[in-house]
Design a protein that fits this description.
Residues 45-274 form the Solute-binding protein family 3/N-terminal domain. This is Amino acid ABC transporter amino acid-binding protein. It comes from Arthrobacter globiformis (strain ATCC 8010 / DSM 20124 / JCM 1332 / NBRC 12137 / NCIMB 8907 / NRRL B-2979 / 168). Residues 1-26 form the signal peptide. InterPro entries: Solute-binding_3/MltF_N (IPR001638). By secondary structure, this protein is of the alpha/beta class. The protein folds into 2 domains: 45-131 and 233-276, Periplasmic binding protein-like II (D-Maltodextrin-Binding Protein, domain 2); 133-226, Periplasmic binding protein-like II (D-Maltodextrin-Binding Protein, domain 2, 3-Layer(aba) Sandwich). It is 35% helix and 22% strand. It contains 9 helices and 13 strands. Strands 10-9-11-8-12 form a 5-stranded mixed β-sheet, with helices on both faces. The protein has a 3-stranded parallel β-sheet with strand order 5-1-6, with helices on one face. The protein has a 3-stranded antiparallel β-sheet with strand order 2-3-4, with helices on one face. Helix 5 links the parallel strand 9 and strand 10 (183-187). Helix 2 crosses helix 8 (246-259) and helix 2 (71-83) packs antiparallel against helix 9 (262-269). The longest helix is centred in the first third of the chain and has 23 residues, at 4-26. The radius of gyration is 28 Å and the shape is elongated.
């Protein structure tokens, strides 16, 4: 027969054994129930901020309105799909892009922004595409592959732009080799410079590779890009909150998309060079 003392001790032991699992449950973080990685400002959505004025990276499909499309936007949507979430694209003023991360308006900023030391101080940068300068020539003239091939030829360029200095550097090299210089024709707008090539007034137009890709896509087959003339000197980066939990997940998603060939296919879709897809570049400008 159990004595009252033993009975009370048994009751206390039973209560203690029941309390242990309850205490363990109280200290366990609840499981994530919303789709997507932790850190999204709105669970189930990848909120992406972009400035849709840089064809073919991001632009309005209707020209001045409608759906925002482009390489960057499709990349963001591919990441969202890989996470099982919807991608919400937010039209954002250029100077509000990076501040939008800290203000919790954006999970991701992707808008043809170069990786720079200044931006990396306030946000995490994930490189994805090398960028630099290209020539645009009449279709069938891609034998003009190197800057030296333009010796003695006329190149149209946006007046006062960095491309003028680029051509002058090439001319210094040509002069040192005793070769004819490039004739530099400056125009008040890049479309006018491209028009000079189409009309035969110039042999080529020089601009950023993105601008040349845009000109080619709108030229009805009259222009093509020469992408081998210059080495890329900058890299585009996607930006996420500084030291945030999304950065690692975003890098992993990009790597997977690259391995599947998705990024190269997107580059082809928008007339960009798939060989410039680069997830490991350490290029960084000072500005």
């Amino acid at each position: 027969m159990m004595t009252p003392l033993k009975r009370n001790a048994l009751i206390l032991m039973t209560l203690a054994s029941l309390a242990l699992p309850l205490a363990g449950c109280a200290g366990t973080a609840p499981e994530q129930t919303e789709s997507g990685p932790q850190g999204l400002i709105q669970p189930g959505f990848l909120t992406t901020c972009t400035y849709p004025e840089y064809h073919p990276m991001e632009y309005f499909e209707g020209g001045t309105g409608g759906e925002i499309v482009g390489f960057d936007v499709d990349l963001a949507r591919a990441v969202g799909d890989s996470w099982g979430v919807q991608t919400k694209v937010v039209n954002t003023a250029f100077d509000g892009l990076i501040p939008g991360l800290d203000a919790q308006r954006c999970d991701l900023v992707i808008s043809g922004l170069s990786v720079s030391d200044a931006r990396r101080e306030v946000a995490d940068a994930v490189p994805y595409m090398l960028t630099g300068y290209d020539f645009g020539v009449q279709s069938g003239e891609k034998s003009l592959e190197n800057p030296e091939d333009y010796s003695g030829r006329t190149v149209a360029v946006l007046a006062g732009s960095r491309m003028v200095a680029k051509l002058k550097t090439v001319n210094e090299q040509l002069a040192s080799e005793g070769k004819p210089l490039i004739k530099i024709d400056e125009y008040p707008g890049t479309p006018l410079a491209a028009g000079a090539v189409i009309s035969g007034k110039a042999d080529a137009v020089i601009d950023t590779d993105i601008a040349i890709a845009s000109l080619v896509s709108k030229s009805n087959g009259t222009l093509e890009a020469v992408t081998s003339a210059f080495k890329p000197d900058e890299v585009f980066g996607a930006y996420l909150r500084k030291d945030g939990t999304l950065t690692g997940a975003f890098k992993d998603a990009l790597k997977e998309l690259q391995e599947k060939g998705t990024l190269a296919a997107l580059a082809d879709r928008y007339g960009l060079d798939p060989n410039k897809i680069d997830l490991s570049s350490n290029l960084s400008s000072k500005q």
